[in-house]
Design a protein that fits this description.
heterodimer; A: 227 residues; alpha/beta; Rossmann fold; two-stranded antiparallel sheet; B: alpha+beta
Chain lengths: 227, 81
């Protein structure tokens, strides 16, 4: 399995994401610069956190038009697996690869805390049987307030597309939503950072398990590293 | 010509920035507000002729880039020179 971690101007969790996959999950990982038009032989595309293009206009709005995102669109249409974390989640929503949008936290504050998250049953590998009923992951964002229209929310719930919900909502997100997947089940996004939760000095060690749970339905080989 | 694109949060979307600005206005003694919404003004200057084709292209970039239709509405004013 080969992982491509995208890099935009202003990405700042690209190295964290690289470290999560290369050292934590021990998979072949490379960086792909936003000017590239091909993802090479990647099996998984990770869109990392940060402040791509300074969050100008709206978070993720400009990154969405980077040359590499055309390749990501084509990759996902063919069923390729895409995983966005924090700003990566915002970019995937702007690109229309995930439904909804992320607006300013209701508190208007940048929130940098460790959150307890309720695990939902969403895929064969993402569920409380695998992860337990609750996990802890850090967040660090000013725009993590998930919004979608009523019909969109009903669809998310009916299709079990919600992965994680905040136990104490830090940002005003609709239905406490912290992470979702696409209806087809190959595109994933979450505001919390598994890439900041797998070393002893991190505030939580749940990151490896969460990333594995997201991806193991498509890449069962990941399970051997978390056994 | 000059084009002003005005982007505002959709009516049914929570606007935390607008709420905070509304509170500040009230603390200044401004009369009680029904709503306060904060949006964006994007000014474009371009050598082009206003035509139905041009408006179609303008609408397209307003939907694709300048606003996010999930959470925002847009309108524009064209000032021909």
């Amino acid at each position: 399995m080969k992982v491509a971690v995208l890099q935009f101007p202003g990405s700042n969790c690209d190295q964290d994401a690289f470290h999560l996959f290369a050292s934590g999950l021990k998979v072949n990982t490379k960086y792909v610069w936003h000017k590239e038009t091909s993802l090479g032989d990647a099996d998984l595309v990770v869109v990392p956190g940060g402040f791509s293009y300074g969050d100008y206009l709206r978070c993720g709005a400009i990154a969405r038009f980077s040359p590499v995102m055309k390749a990501v669109q084509a990759f996902s249409q063919q069923g390729g697996v895409v995983y966005g974390i924090c700003n990566g989640f915002q970019i995937l929503c702007e690109a229309g690869l995930l439904p909804g949008a992320l607006i300013r936290n209701s508190s208007l504050e940048y929130r940098c805390i460790t959150c307890a998250l309720k695990v939902e049953t969403s895929t064969a590998s993402f569920n409380p049987n695998f992860l337990g009923a609750s996990v802890k992951l850090p967040i660090g964002h000013g725009e993590g307030n998930f919004r979608i229209d009523e019909a969109g929310l009903a669809r998310l719930e009916a299709n079990k597309q919600v992965l994680l919900r905040y136990e104490n909502n830090p940002n005003g997100s609709l239905s406490d939503i912290a992470g979702i997947r696409s209806e087809a089940g190959n595109v994933f996004g979450m505001m919390p950072h598994p890439d900041r939760a797998f070393e002893r000095f991190h505030p939580s060690m749940d990151g490896l398990k969460v990333a594995t749970a997201v991806l193991a339905t498509k890449f069962p080989e990941l399970l051997k590293h978390t056994a | 010509m000059k084009i002003s694109v005005i982007v505002t949060p959709k009516k049914n979307v929570l606007d935390p920035q607008g709420v905070a600005v509304g509170h500040a206005l009230e603390s200044l003694g401004f009369p009680k507000l029904k709503t306060t919404r904060v949006g964006k003004l994007i000014e474009l200057e371009i050598e082009a002729v206003d035509s139905p084709e041009f408006r179609t292209r303008l609408d397209q970039v307003c939907k694709d880039l300048l606003s996010n239709p999930v959470i925002e509405d847009y309108r524009y004013e064209i000032v021909a020179r």
